[in-house]
Each structure stands twice: as structure tokens, then as C-alpha cells.
Amino acid sequence: MGIEPGRIQFSWVSSAESTKFVQVVKEVTETVKALGPNTHFVKHEAKVA
Amino acid sequence: MSEWEPKIVSFLCNWCSYGAADLAGVSRMEYPPNIRVVRIPCTGRMDPKFFLAALREGADGVWVSG
Amino acid sequence: MITFKLNGQTVQGEEGQYILQVAEKYGVDIPTLCHHKALEPAGMCRLCTVELFDGRRSRFVTACNYPIWEGMEVQTDSEMVHQGRKLIVEMLLARCPEVPLLQKMAEDYGIGEPRFKKEEDTCILCGLCTRVCERMGANAISLTGRGVDMRVDTPYGVNSDDCLACGACASVCPTGHIDLDRVNRQHTRIQAQLIPSEYDVGLKGRKAVYVPYAQAVPNTPAIDRDVCMHFKTGGCKICTAFCGVDAIDHSMEDEIIELDVGSVVLSPGFEPFDPSKFDSYGYAKHPNVITSMEMERILSASGPTAGHLVRPSDHAEPKKIAWFQCVGSRDLNRCDNAYCSSVCCMYAIKEAVIAKEHAGDDLDCTIFYMDMRTHGKDFERFYDNAREKVGVRFIRSRVHTIDPAPDGDSLSVRYITEDGHTETETFDMIVLSIGLQISPETVQLAEKLGIELTPGNFGKTGSFEPVATSREGIFLCGAFQGPKDIPQSVVDSSAAASAAGEILSAARNTATKTPEEIPETNVVGEPPRIGVFVCRCGINIAGVVDVPAVAEYAKTLPYVVYASDNLYSCSQDTQEAMANIIRQKKLNRVVVAACTPKTHEPLFQETLVNAGLNKYLFEMANIRNQDSWVHKSDPERATEKAKDLVRMAVSKVALTEPLQEAELAIKPVAMVVGGGISGLTAARSLSRQGYETHVIEKEGQLGGQARSLYRTATGEDVQSKLAALVEEIQDDEKIQVHLNTRLAAVDGFVGNFKATLVCGDAEEELEHGVVILATGAEPLKPEEYAYGTDPRIVTSLELDRRLMDDDPLLKKAETAVFIQCVGSREPQRPYCSRVCCTHSIDNALELKRRNPDMTVYILYRDIRTYGEREYLYKQAREAGVIFIRYSVDNKPVVAVGKEKISVTVTDHILGRPVEIEADLLSLASAIVPPGDEALAQFFKVPLNDDGFFVEKHAKLGPSEFATDGVFLCGLAHYPKPVDEAVAQGRAAASRAVTLLARETIHTSGTVARTNPMDCASCGVCVAICPYSAPFFTTEGPFAGKAEINPVLCKGCGLCVASCRSGAISLKGFDNDQIFAQLFALNEETVV
Questions:
Q1: CATH number of C530-653
Q2: I need a surface site. Which of A22, C74, C131, C310 has the fewest CB within 10 A?
């Protein structure tokens, strides 16, 4: 559908695993950051920063 | 503007990851402020429409965590 | 109020305030090194110098101690001020060139090498330490000497009795000049040390004002009187200066409260064994010898090393860790604890597995043990997995001495292997698996209450009343009853609650208060009027997020008619104020941006209810736990995120609608399936608490497996006790026994079950509100060891029967052999049957008692006489019972001869086969559950691979199912001895009564609902729901369409996502609400 892998991510973290949660947030953020702004399906023209 | 920062929509299960996110706060851990959390009762609630809607509304990423 | 100008901006302050205080209020940063909010300012460091214009001329004053006056003009960062500060920093750096704080400041001011002569001091003479010492009421140190000789010291420079080693000076010192070492060297005669954190078992320090641990309930700080300086000197009280809500009251006294109660439950718990008395393990000497409790903290993410596995001495990552079992347990030589602590084998394996998870596969984990006791549910599998897949090494050996290795950090141990060799191995770290024991305080308490204790100091109980003490009305539970793990403690606690409840049942609901009901305002059809309350949470949120800005922003959002910020939204007065605002402003939707809904949603919902609003017209924005606390180094983006979250919450709340919680009556009738000892106990307890109970038994007789048991491990006669119980049940008017009866069908759900009972040709319907499954288990009929070919070969229960019948063969037999683990702990049945070791040893002793000349062998794999059952094992060895260990891949071989039965077993120590000529062979056959799938289907409850029922939660919900209204006890849960079966019977009754006593249940408002018009009857929702809530309607205009039972629905939303026709909606988390949140993701898209 044109969505890059990594733009949508899944994970499983139990409510006690705060360390894992933080680690996953960092990874997800890094991955998406590396992909750059999303241009698919965006309602308006992507506002490029 | 400084470096581009993505906005990531996070669907977090109320009983699992949402709790982990709260605990991360209690433990005063730090992480990047890019995520916007949508609390859902269970990851079973996830609907493909939500991914598309999030991207349509300008999210740069979608993260679902159970 | 005084008005003046600060950097050109008009500001206001109170009479008597100093410039610095006003600047702080307005967010103007003035650097300082010697200022402390709670101490009198001294103007020592001069860094806070600002430029003051008094209308005629400019001069420089120190902001920290210059009082404000009307009309003054202050510049905090003019060029002149900047130059002055730069010079001060340069001079301080020259005095203390090695202080990191000053190095950092010098860098910020662009200072390279100072132009002045460098010295080697670390003290900047700010005087914070002396002022705080005075405030502490100690007055131990002061600035002594003059001019260049000035320094911080005690009078005459000798260690002083006045210094109470509180460490306040070290905690305020900005340069690190004073630390606890210096306090000990130069100031005090007492040893200054960190206050050990109880929660982190001393691995970390804590403050005198502290929250015991992150999840403590209530989560409020407490003052430790023993170390708080105020209670020593009357000084300090600094905490009061920091508390924004004036909550600290040092004058509070201990109170003695007298309560009139009908029953008492004791649950004082245990204390971990202190291994420092064992010289040979050197726990007190070697930092890398730690206890298992310390290991738990080191492995914990919230522990002192944040879950990073390092050893204490040098914080290096260990490569080899050993666990020593039975430290302070099963030991009469070096301590007095002869019992087995029951839990240590399992926790050691768990720690080893987690350690390897944390550190990777390279980590070598070795457990030194005597018998591996994994007798709990699913524990044997965990052990197998740790050994075979995870690669934990298990060595059967009791190590006696730990020596330091040559490198000084590692530890050397010498041990004897199973085949008799001596080995020496070095480990980086050794964990002592310490046992559980009863504290002297608990023993005193028991004496005061006049209750009897066992030899191990545990509360004495009987197998048939496992939670009753020797004194009527006093019950106990948990580790005070005997060393036990969490599930067993939870079972006990429910059992104790039922025992206490039975004698109080007449008084039920006589001391409850009903809150006043406030009529709900009808908001349907009104346009949303949203109120937004943004919480500062003291400085918890406001310290990072710009709370006023978020509140201001909220006012601009659609439908928001009110927004404000609160200091603490959860405080009682704010709650009342919020309710008033809701009424005054006629708000019909509320958003609170604060901590987290996980803890505070119910509280704010109550505020809504008090203001006459439906509690579902509410949404929380999590700007503390998921914002200010986790983004403290980026206040700008944290504020941005808070605005986004508030916007998303506002757009969701606008779409909320009032939801109703249906009320449902619970039929006050209980059904117990299974008439064994556990089921009968449950039935008796239910009846005693006032509920009509039906016992369904498939056989023609009550009593179950207990009918075959001779004695309990503590020597009580089972048959007489069982007969008494059966008689009580049969005489009980509230209990109806259905013998020879089976269940043919079950319909309904919690509170309203309907069962079809079949007895012969007769069919009967039974309506009931709750059900307890106590369907038991059976002894395995062995298919090995020549069982069934000779009357001299019997199972444990058959031997019990012969003991009851006083079979003459038992006296005549010269040699008896017991074989353990017959059918248990094998690939096809990888669980331990828990009771057999104790049972066989007890029977072996009984044979010895009846015929002291008999030679008795027990062939075993691990002896699992957990808790105080261990005494029996010791007695048996003393009585001359011979224990020979065999391994599962080299089992004993049985050959039936005419005269004797020959049993050949390979002795582990000799390594040679031994042939025993026996007259009696008793096989400890496994306990096998029926695995009744039909029954499981009736109540929609799961069975595990072994055929035992799967409880709601292995630790916290052992006596109930995930399906509401269905409970569990006895062997159907897992093999267990009489006392544990009785305890669980009581526990299941107790859990059932919590439901029955409510009389009605409220369903949650956030449940799924179908729209029958859109339903295509595809059945996906019916198939997919884990709680069996959806079903096909059979009557009415929508027959054949799916409907959802709101009582069973847990609101997970699985059906909503799976419905292809879009016919299902989930109140509170509906599609449009989630979309609304997404639509509000970016500011420009808000419509």
C-alpha cells in the first residue's frame, strides 16, 4: 500500500516492564525518524518542516 | 526550525503497555517526546482503519503495543 | 504588595521578600551557589549580584538577601552584571580548579585558564554547610579562621560529639567538598552512613522523609522518626518549607486505638534468614556474597542498579554466578531451622533464568542444592526448561566454605561431586538462597495472644482447620502458618477470611454506610460544554510543563467553556471546588489533564457524580506519568505534547455520552461440583455464611479420595475427621446433597446459572448464582514395576487401606520398598504430584512403628518434604529408613519371585546396582486429573496440558476462574495434601461469598453493543470473544442476530474490530471517539 515497513510497528510490553517500554519508544522513534515525514495517505499536502 | 521531529501515534493497551508507560514515569525514566498516546481497552480493539486515519491526519508513524 | 521592575517587566512581590524570590516566581534565572530555599540567605558567593537602579544611580546588590522595595528597577543580566559574575567564577575556579561544577560554569562564561594563581581547594566558603548545621540544631561546624585561613571546621578541629552525623552538610555542599567520608574523618565521632533503604535491602540509601517504594499504598511519604533530625534536636523542619500544601505535622503522636472485633486474622509474615552468622560463607566479609533478597533487587528494573546485573564490589558484570540452597533451612547444625523453607528452590531457578535473560547466554549460572523441590503447579516444567533449554547448571552438593579468590573480588568454592570427587571452582558472585523464618516479634505476639506454635515457631494449626489457631476466633494465614509461596499464601488468606466471616456472618452489612445519591443531570441533546482542569501536581507537572499556557490553550479549543489550573487536583478542597465549577458553569463534559487515569480516573469520576454528571462524561489527559516525568529535560516539547494530549482528550470527550451500568440480581444459591474433602469444606463454609448450597457428587458416597487416606502428615486420623465433616454436611439444612448425579448442561452466566442435573433417569434444573468446581483427581494405575501382577505390589493409597485394615502382612514383612515418582515427573506427565514423598515417608515410619525390625527402603529422585514435613524425613532417616536415589533414565527394575519381590536399583553413591529382596512394594503413583472437557465447556473455563484447570491468575487468583462466578478448589487445581485442599475449599467459598454478599452486580458502562439492523449473523464475534459475551438471539424480531451480554462483556473491543458489518460499537472507546482523537492529532486539523 506504499507504507514503508517500520512506519507501523507492533510490540508487546507487560505493565511491569517500564525499561522495555522506554527502549521500544526509543527504537520506534529512531526508526520513524530515519524514514522521514510520512507522505502516504496524508489528508493535506505534507507540510515539510 | 530545528531538526525535524516525527509525530508517532501510539495505541497502548490499558492493561499492559499503558501501565508500563505509567511506571516509566514513576521511575522517572526519560524518552523522546514524540509519541501521542491513545489509550485502548485492549489491542483487540485495533482496527486497520485507525492506522489509515492516523497517517491521514499527519502521523509519521503508528505504534501498537499490547 | 510591592511593585517594581525586573528586567523592564513590572513585577510584584510581598513585603519582606528578597529579589531572588520574586525573580524565581517570574521564572527569571539568577545564578547562585550559596542559596537554599529553607535557609536564611547570607550573600556569601556574590554570584547572584544584580544591578539595582534606585532612580538616581546604579549599584550592585546580592539578589538573595536584598529586600524588595516599591519602584526599584533591577537588571539581572546586564553586561556589567555578567562581567562581575564572570570574574567571581574565574576567582572561584582558581581556588578550586578541580570542582566539576565550577569547571562547567567557567565553560559557560567562556573562561579558559584562570588568570589567578591556582590553589588546590575544593571549598568555596559558601557557608551552606554551617547554616544547615545550625538549622539542624547541631551547631557542630562553623567557618573558622580568618582571611585566607578561613575554613569549615569543628571547634579546635577535633571530631565532635555535637556532630550527629546527619549528613545535611554533605547533602547541601555544592562542590562536593564535604562528603560522608569527610564527616567521618573530621567532624563526627559517630559513624555517618546512608540510611539503608528497607525496600532495596540496604543496597541503596534513602532519605529520612521517604516513600517506602514506588508502588506503595498509600503513596505518601513518611518521616522516619528514628533518623529525622527534628526529633533529635528540635531543629531542621526544612521539609515544611518545601511542602506546597502544608501537609507535614511534626507534632503528631502515636495513638493507641481500641477496636471491638469478632475475629482476628494474623498475617505477620516471615523474616528472611540472616546468613551473617555463618562464618564459613563470609556473607559479612565478602561483598560479592549476597542474599537471594539482594539478588531480587539487583535483577529488578526498579532496583538499585535499574536491573543491570553487576556485582557489588566493583560493579563489574559477573560471568559466573552460583546459588547455594538451604541457607538457614534444613539445618540444625549451624542454625535452628530444621524445616524446609519451601520456596527457595523455585526462586533460585527463577533468579538464574532471569539473570541469564539480563546478561545473555554467556553467563554461567550454577545452583548447588540437596534436593530440588519444585513441587508447585507448573514448577517442574520451569525446572526442566531451566536445565535443558536455558542451560542453568544444577549440582547436587552442599558447599561448606567460601574463600576469597586471589583477585580479591571473586570467590572460590570447594565442593564434593555426586561421585565423590572434590572440585574447586571460582565464581564472580555467590547468592545465598536464604530461608524463611518467624521473627522474634511474631513469637512474642503469639505468646501475648496465647496461641500455640510449632517447633519451627509457626502458628500451630490442624490439617482440617488449616487457618485456625489454637485459640478460638483467631485465625492466621501466609508464611506464619508455614513457609509457603504466593499462591498458597493467597489461598490461605481467602481461607482465613472465610473462617473469620463464618462467625461474623450475622453481622454482615451492619457497619456499612451508604453514600447519598445525587440525581444525575440529563445532558442528552445539549451541545457539549467542556471544562478542562489542568493539574500542576505541585512541581511534578508544573516544574516541566508550562501549565498556565496549557490551560490558556485549552480555552481556545472547540466547546471548551472553562479551563483553569489546579495546584493539586486530587486534594479534597480542589475536588469540592471542581464540583462547584461544574455546577456553576453548567459543564456537561470534563477533561482533567493530570497524573494518569490508571490511578485517578475513579476519583475524578466520583467528582463528576457529586456534581450530578454521569461518570462517563469524562476523559483524562496523561500529562504527568507520560509527559512531565519522562521529558523533564525538554520542557518546550513536553508542553507541546501536553497541549496535543489535551486537544485529543477534548475532542474525544465531546463525543462521550452518559452510559448506564445495568444492575443484576445474584441468585443467592451456590453449586459445588464434587463431594470430596475440598468441595465439602467449601459447601460447609458457604452454608455457615448463610447461603443455600448444592453439592453434586457423581458417586454414591461423599468424601472423594480422602476415603482412602489413613493419616495426615501430622498424624491425624483422616477417617474420623472425614466422617464428622460428611455428617455435618448431611445434617445441614442449607446444604442439599445430590449423589449419583452428573451435570448434563449449564446455561447462563454469573449470578444466574442454570444447570441440568441428571440422576439416573431423573432430570432436575438447578438455578444458582455461583459455582465451585471441586472435581478432584484420581490415583494413576501404574503400568510399570509389575503392578497388578502380585498382591504384594500396591499403590500408596492401597497401602493406606491395608494400614487401616491392619493387614497382618504388614507385620510379617521383613523388607518393604517404596518407589517414588511413579508416573510423575516424566515426559508424559511433567509435573510433581506434591504429596507422595511425605506420604511414603509417613507410611515408612508407620511400618517401622508396627514392626521395628523391618528393613525399609525408599527409592526416590528428590525428596520433597517441604515446610515442616521435613521433620518426617529426618525422623525416617533416624529410624533407619534407607533412602536410595535413582535417576529417571535408570529406573529401578522389579522382578516378581515366589518368595520375594526383587527390586534392583543403581545406587548413586556406589554407582553399582543393588538388589533388594522385598516382601512389600509400595508405588507412589501420580495424581491424575480427569480433564473433564465437557465440564470445562459448560463453564467456559480452560484446562492445561496435564488436565488440571487453569485458574484466573497463577499467583493472585488461585481459587477462581477468569470466568466470573466460577471458582476452583482441591485436586482439580493441582495435587495437594489434605490441609491445602481444605484451605482451598474455604478459599473458593470465600471468593464466592464476595460475589454473593453483594446481592447485585453492576455491569461496566464501557461494554460492546450490537446494532441488529447491521448484523449479518456471521458469528465471528460469538467465536472470537474470550468471555463468551456475544450470542445469537433466539426470540423476537431480531432472532438469529448477534447480541452481547453486558454482564459478561469486559469491554476489550475484540468483537468491534472483528465485525465485518460494523454492527458492533464499544461505548467509551467507540470508533468515532478514537477517530476524534486522531483527527485532533495536529492543531491545524481541529474542526
A1: 3.40.50
A2: C310
Domain range annotation of chain C: 2-77, 272-437, 440-507, 530-653, 779-928, 1003-1079
Cβ contact, residue pair B45, C1078, below 8 Å: no
B20 touches chain A (CB under 8 A): yes
CATH dotted code for C779-928? 3.50.50.60
CA distance C50 to C38: 22
Name beta bridge partners: C59: C52
Q: Is C882 exposed, middle or buried (0-12, 13-18, 19+ CB in 10 A)?
A: middle
Question: If 0-12 CB within 10 Å is exposed, 13-18 middle and 19+ buried, where does residue C514 land?
Answer: exposed
Residue C672: strand pairing partners: C695, C772
CATH number of the structural domain C1003-1079: 3.30.70.20
Dihedral of the alpha carbons of C822, C823, C825, C829, in degrees to the nearest 10: -170
Give the residue among C1043, C1074, C63 at the shortest CA–CA distance from B12: C1074
**CA gap C829, C197 in Å, rounded:** 44
Please give, one letter per residue, the 3-state secondary structure of C484-510.
Answer: CCHHHHHHHHHHHHHHHHHHHHHHCCC
**Beta-carbon count within 10 A of C992 CB:** 30
pLDDT surpasses 70 at C1087: no
**C1087 interfaces chain A, CB cutoff of 8 Å:** no
A/B interface, count of CB pairs below 8 Å: 125
Q: What's the pLDDT tens digit per position in C876-897?
A: 999 999 999 999 999 999 999 9
CATH entry, C2-77, from 3.40.1550.10, 3.20.20.30, 3.10.20.740, 3.40.920.10: 3.10.20.740
Which residues of chain A lie closer than 8 angstroms to C1084, CB-CB?
44
**CA A31 to mean position of chain CA atoms:** 6
Does the pTM of the predicted model rise above 0.90?
no
As a whole number of angstroms, the distance between CA C459 and CA C397 comes to 32
Q: What is the per-residue pLDDT across C229-274, written as a single tens digit (0 to 9) for each?
A: 999 999 999 999 888 788 999 999 999 999 999 999 999 999 999 9
Which of C626, C1069, C1078 faces B54 most closely, judged by CB atoms? C1078
User: Would the CATH topology of C272-437 be identical to that of C779-928?
Assistant: yes
Verify whether the Cβ–Cβ distance A7 to B62 is below 8 Å. yes
DSSP β-bridge partners for residue C143: C152
Please give the backbone phi and psi of residue A31, each rounded to the nearest 5 degrees, phi first.
-60, -50
C449-482 tens-digit pLDDT: 999 999 999 999 999 999 999 999 999 999 999 9
How many beta carbons lie within 10 A of that of residue B60, not counting itself?
A: 24
> Residue C983 and residue C496: Cα distance in Å, rounded?
8
Angle in degrees, 0-180, between the axes of helices C796-804 and C836-850, rounded to the nearest 10: 30
Q: What is the DSSP letter of C711?
A: B
Distances (CA, A) of C687 to C734, C755, C767, C959: 6, 20, 17, 18
d(CA C1042, CA C220): 48
CA nearest neighbour of C778 among C829, C730, C740:
C829
Q: How many CB atoms lie within 10 A of CB C340?
A: 30
Residues of A in contact with B42 (CB under 8 A): none
HSE at residue C374, side-chain half, CA atoms within 13 A, is 22
Cell representation of residue C637? 516539547
Distance CA C307, CA C203 (A): 13
Q: Which CATH number fits domain C272-437: 3.40.50.261, 3.50.50.60, 1.20.1600.10, 3.60.160.10?
A: 3.50.50.60
* CB proximity list for C262: less than 8 A, separation 6 or greater: C473, C500, C503, C504, C507
ipTM, two decimals, is 0.96
